[in-house]
Write a structure and sequence with these properties.
With 190 residues, this protein is mainly alpha-helical. The protein is built from 6 helices and 2 strands; from the N terminus they run E-E-H-H-H-H-H-H. The longest helix is centred in the C-terminal third of the chain and has 26 residues, at 116-141. Belongs to the Cob(I)alamin adenosyltransferase family.
Length: 190
């Protein structure tokens, strides 16, 4: 792993480059910094979600996710290095199964709305999808293990499910999209 930062304002990035964990420098506009930045932004949004009142088990899960995202970002920052472990993906799969079992089937698309915690979970979901796309774009030009992409894909699914869970904490529900197709179908059956 590269050296730990001892000072933040190094001015080495003033030329439009950034240092990777293997001490190479790349353009801040290249694929690796884009993917790392999106993962960092996702982790920050999850930190914001953790400021909300959450069930303890959701809080613990999200705290673990933050650590896994830090590992994922570290892996992206060091080409060829592996930090994200299989147990992180397994944790997401288990959480998806656990929380999905508690939810009713979706009747229609839902809006990213409801409680503030649920809405923030939806923001996290969309940032996770962007981070996943950035990793896929990086894989088009560089060698990257499948684990980061898989983790972000599964995490975005989990964040969608958690948004639904969080809307129900105090007896609420999903906010369904008012589909014109469904409205027409309902009116023809009346």
């Amino acid at each position: 792993m590269g050296n730990r930062l001892t000072q933040i304002a190094t001015r080495t990035g003033d030329d439009g480059t950034t240092g990777l964990g293997d001490n190479t420098r790349v353009s801040k506009n290249s694929g690796r910094p884009h993917a790392m930045g999106d993962v960092d932004e996702l982790n920050s949004h999850i930190g914001l979600l953790l400021c909300e009142t959450l069930p303890d088990e959701v809080r613990e899960l999200l705290f673990d996710v933050q650590h896994q995202l830090f590992n994922l970002g570290g892996e992206l920052s060091i080409p060829g290095f592996e930090l994200l472990k299989d147990d992180g993906l397994l944790q997401l799969d288990n959480a998806l199964a656990h929380y999905n079992a508690q939810l009713p089937r979706l009747q229609e698309f839902i809006l990213p709305a409801g409680t503030r915690a649920a809405a923030q979970a939806h923001v996290c979901r969309t940032v996770a999808r962007r981070a996943e796309r950035a990793v896929v774009a990086l894989q088009d030009s560089e060698s990257v293990r499948a684990a980061p992409r898989q983790y972000l894909n599964r995490l975005s699914d989990l964040l969608f499910v958690l948004a639904r869970v969080l809307n129900r904490v105090d007896g609420g529900d999903d906010i369904y999209w008012k589909s014109e197709r469904l409205a027409r179908a309902a009116s023809t059956h009346e």
